[in-house]
């Protein structure tokens, strides 16, 4: 008797306004830190593919930049990457923050979603920060303006209700093969993840005027004969004043960035890492298409 194929696999876009916890959600679901996290908006600059493999299903998440009104070419690229993802996937997770009211940003995204025929699951994140009874009016507000395929309240940080979210998602995945090896959690090369981990530390440790003016590039990554890994990374800023901020007094802040980033990179690579950081000025790089292309942002934005 022929066995009926029931394995499911599919691509899922994770969208939402900046800083609602999209990257935290994806990292928690796949059980490994791939997408960087920060309390600064627009942390994710590139579209990152993250993979969760279970015995009967493979969930391929596309963690996208937050959809927002762009103020420069980099912003245009980020929004284009996020909105372009909606056309390529089997399902969409629209993540909102339970602690904030529906605003212009959410309405903008909902308007964009009207054009898609893909199933959209509303994920109300950060429910650990509100009382349970407060979740109902939040959900009612969203379901009044859009017909969602499903609604799941979660806390990505506290790992609340994530199994229910996966169960809900599985309904909308097509029957299909396991596209990626079971131990593969991302399609991103190690060099890019290293650069992202360094950028995360800069976002955490610098002042507000710096974060979106930085880009990070891994220039060299070499495994030595003893198994140690040498990595040279360049942090690009737009102005000399920003360079001074990132370096800090007597190089103190840059050293702190290096220390924290090295710990995460060593955990990812499973090896001892020697990390060398350089800071360079590329004036107005966010508005220069050629520079954006060289840094991996796609200069046609």
Description:
By secondary structure, the protein is an alpha/beta fold. The chain is built from 9 helices and 9 strands. Helix 4 links the parallel strand 5 and strand 6. The strands form 2 sheets. A 6-stranded mixed beta sheet has the order 2-3-1-4-5-6, with helices on both faces. It has a 3-stranded mixed beta sheet with strand order 7-8-9.
Set down the secondary structure blueprint:
Blueprint: E1 8-15, H1 22-30, E2 48-54, E3 57-63, H2 73-85, E4 91-97, H3 104-113, E5 120-125, H4 132-143, E6 150-153, H5 162-170, H6 190-205, E7 215-223, E8 229-237, H7 240-247, H8 252-269, E9 273-281, H9 289-294
Parallel strand pairs: 1-3, 1-4, 4-5, 5-6, 8-9
Antiparallel strand pairs: 2-3, 7-8
Helix pairs in contact: 6-8
Give me the oligomer status: single chain
Strand fraction band? 15-25%
The helix count comes to: 9
CATH H-tier superfamily of the largest domain = P-loop containing nucleotide triphosphate hydrolases
Structural class by secondary-structure content: alpha/beta
Radius of gyration: 20 Å
How many domains in all? 2
Could you tell me the mean pLDDT? 82
The CATH architecture of the largest domain = 3-Layer(aba) Sandwich
Separation of the first and last Cα atoms: 53 Å
* Poorly predicted regions: 37-45
Q: What CATH first level of the largest domain would be assigned? A: Alpha Beta
The total strand number stands at 9
CATH topology of the largest domain: Rossmann fold
Order of helices and strands: EHEEHEHEHEHHEEHHEH
The dominant shape is globular
């Amino acid at each position: 008797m022929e066995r009926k194929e029931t394995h499911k696999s599919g691509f899922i876009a994770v969208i939402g306004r900046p800083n609602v916890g999209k990257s935290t959600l994806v990292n928690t679901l796949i059980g490994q830190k791939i997408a960087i996290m920060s309390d600064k908006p627009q942390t994710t600059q590139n579209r990152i593919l993250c993979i969760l493999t279970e015995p009967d299903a493979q969930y391929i998440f596309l963690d996208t930049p937050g959809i927002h009104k762009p103020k420069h070419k980099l912003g245009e690229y980020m929004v284009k990457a996020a909105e372009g993802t909606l056309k390529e996937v089997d399902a969409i997770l629209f993540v909102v923050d339970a602690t904030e009211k529906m605003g212009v940003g959410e309405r903008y995204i909902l308007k964009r979603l009207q054009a898609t025929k893909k199933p959209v699951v509303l994920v109300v994140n950060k429910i650990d920060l509100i009382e349970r009874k407060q979740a109902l009016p939040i959900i009612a507000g969203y379901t009044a303006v859009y017909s969602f395929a499903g609604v799941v309240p979660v806390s990505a940080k506290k790992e609340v209700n994530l199994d229910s979210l996966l169960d809900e998602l599985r309904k909308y995945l097509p029957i299909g093969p396991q596209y990626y090896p079971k131990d593969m959690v991302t399609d991103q090369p190690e060099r890019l993840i290293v650069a992202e981990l360094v950028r995360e530390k800069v976002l955490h440790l610098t002042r507000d005027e710096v974060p979106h003016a930085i880009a990070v590039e891994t220039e060299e990554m070499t495994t030595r004969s003893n198994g140690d890994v040498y990595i040279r990374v360049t942090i690009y800023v737009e102005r000399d004043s920003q360079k001074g901020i990132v370096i800090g007094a007597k190089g103190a802040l840059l050293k702190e960035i290096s220390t924290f980033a090295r710990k995460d990179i060593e955990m990812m690579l499973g090896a001892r890492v020697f990390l060398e950081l350089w800071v360079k000025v590329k004036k107005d790089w966010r508005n220069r298409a050629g520079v954006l292309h060289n840094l991996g942002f796609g200069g046609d934005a």
